[in-house]
Predict the 3D structure of the following.
Amino acid sequence: MISKYLSSLEDISTFGIIGLVIFFGIFILLLVWVIKLDKNYLAKMENLPLENQIENNHKTENKNEIE
Amino acid sequence: MQVEKFSYDNQIVKQFTIAALVFGIVGMLVGLILAIQLYMPELNLGLQYITFGRIRPLHTNAVIFAFVGNIIFAGVYYSLQRVCKTRMFSGLLSQIHFWGWQTIIVLAALSLPLGITTGKEYAELEWPIDLMIAVVWLTFGANMFGTIIKRREKHMYVAIWFYIATFVTITILHVVNSIEIPVSLIKSYPIYAGVQDALTQWWYGHNAVAFFLTTPYLGLMYYFLPKAANRPVYSYRLSILHFWALIFLYIWAGPHHLLYTALPDWAQSLGTVFSVMLIAPSWGGMLNGLLTLRGAWDRVRDNPILKFMVVAVTAYGMSTFEGPMLSLKNFNAITHYTDWTIAHAHIGALGWNGFLSFGLLYWLIPKMWGTELYSKKLANLHFWVGTLGIVFYAIPLYWAGLTQSLMWKQFTPLGILQYPNFLETVLQIIPMYILRSIGGLLYFAGIFLCVYNLMKTAKLGTFIKNEEAEAAPYIKEKDQMKRGLIHRWLEKRPAQFALLALVVVLIGGLVELIPTYLVKSNIPTIASVKPYTPLELQGRDIYIREGCNTCHSQMVRPFRSETERYGEYSKVGEFVYDHPFLWGSKRTGPDLHREGGKYSNLWHYLHFEDPRQMSPGSIMPPYPWLFTQSIDTSITPAKINVMRSIGVPYEQGYEDFANQDLMKQANIIADDLLNNGVPTEPDKEVIALIAYLQRLGTDIKGNQTVNK
């Protein structure tokens, strides 16, 4: 059934155009999202992997002292 | 707020790390052997199990799925726990995942040299192993999502997004590309044929590079690079853009592996356009990585970890620029099927994946053993040996690729090929092959420095099996931040996030694949194209078993230089019964699509006995085992049945007569050989392989003739 529907498409090359339009649509939407992101949130996320480091370094030091 | 005490599981990270190094050494050793076999084919010691065609997939599978795969898992298990501030969801699932994955690797290492292969690049493993991969991969996914769900950190760091996209996409790719019908425990045929199989395979192949070698490593980069540099990522905004644009675009670009082939034009153009667009997010990511080091470049000078990472990220930028260039049709016309592709792939593999792995290991091992790196000097030495290795590997191959391609295309003023003998173009680049193997050797030597240094490091410290940590529990509360609600809503919810990632990658996949699957007009049928005879089918399976397609393409492109050399260019309709397609991606030897009828049976016989007696200087190894091993006729009926079930029009009941036809055709070839002075038993494998080669490309040769 789907195959009938698809073969009725006259020019298959429209698929490329459709793809391009979808992509640019999503991309613009994304851009708006990203620009509107909250600064506090960004700062928090940027430092997320580093938070542990401080704890870990601390621990490592303690550990070395114990040993 | 009350903080909870818990611990991170380092044991699983350690296991994956060790596995990665062990299999990394094996995989690179096999690569080195292959590189030397290219100018010294006798290095196979006359053994079929370590002949080029069989161990080339062993090398690619080992370095991609065993080395890189295990590094991915080590890195994910380490970073995921920490950015989620929780222990892995299930230690049992972690162990099932680890041992399952290693079992798959061992099975691959056994089955590929035995010639058990589907013949599809980077998806060579046969169906029982495919099933295992699916189960183990889903185990990994369950464990990962379980961990994300029980996290103590409200938001998912960008690395986790890359991990989720990796999981979702690899699942789809693996399932769709592995749909095959078993003939026996060790043999299957894909349900797709010819151009459909090619498109599916390269949709898979390209995105395996994207979602196994790239997205998980980007996730690792976004975690480990800031850690190693001890500063936050340059721009979190950019990483969001990088992520969504990358996963959306990548999936469309697969057809650029099939430019100028019989693939429909619109699909080729689509592949090119999206490949060029890919530069933007790829370079966004690269810059984000490099700029993370802003103001800390002085540290790169004396920190080998950062050195490795900087070169890795730079190599990522280089190969993601080169990739789109290679997908421009005019450039691709010159580089495709040559060693240029191999050089390109290795900039990514040795530079991006290899060096990021080493950087990560030099950072990770001291951390997990609670100590400092044993020797910075050794790590620096490793860095330089590895970098030199990459240079010595890649430059000769770029040179070789370009040289050979130009020789293929060179005409004399009279309009005939200047180098009509393919072998001449091979002999020209042998010195480059020798240099390349030296580059490979240097890189290979580097990994031993790494292993030694890491073992010494581990001895200095004590392994912290369970790393204590504490964090406040994740309490659902109203978001205090005002702007960008949609995205933050999304990244707090792993399931919805995975679903959206799935939709994003599916759009490209579906637009690319569905039309080719369903629209009849995309596959012009040619009335004179008939299914293979049982003997040819058996011969074709021997061709697949020996990995002939790793060195010989079966796709004559519509260029005068190719039609002059090989004959009429290949048409889509000629491949409709090819399960799987065997177009190949590299011409170490000449194209074989119009091989049928070009030489006598005797020529092929003598050529298999020792290629050098027909083509002095040939780098193809002899295949003596084809003369002693018999065709497995017990499986012929099953093969016919399976082929019929996937659309090859063998008549009902033909399976009962197939072996009679097989013997009839085999006797004709054996008689011909006998008349020419080489008595051969008709049931030997060489007979089937000759039958297949003599059939190749002859379906439309009769009326649209080619002379050679």
Notes: Residues 39-66 of chain A form the longest helix (28 residues). Confidence is low (pLDDT under 50) at residues 1-9, 53-67 of chain A. Chain A touches chain B at residues 2-3, 6-7, 9, 12-13, 15-16, 18-20, 22-23, 26-27, 30-31, 33-38, 40-42, 44-50, 52-53, 55-56, 59-60, 63-64, 67 (CB under 8 Å).
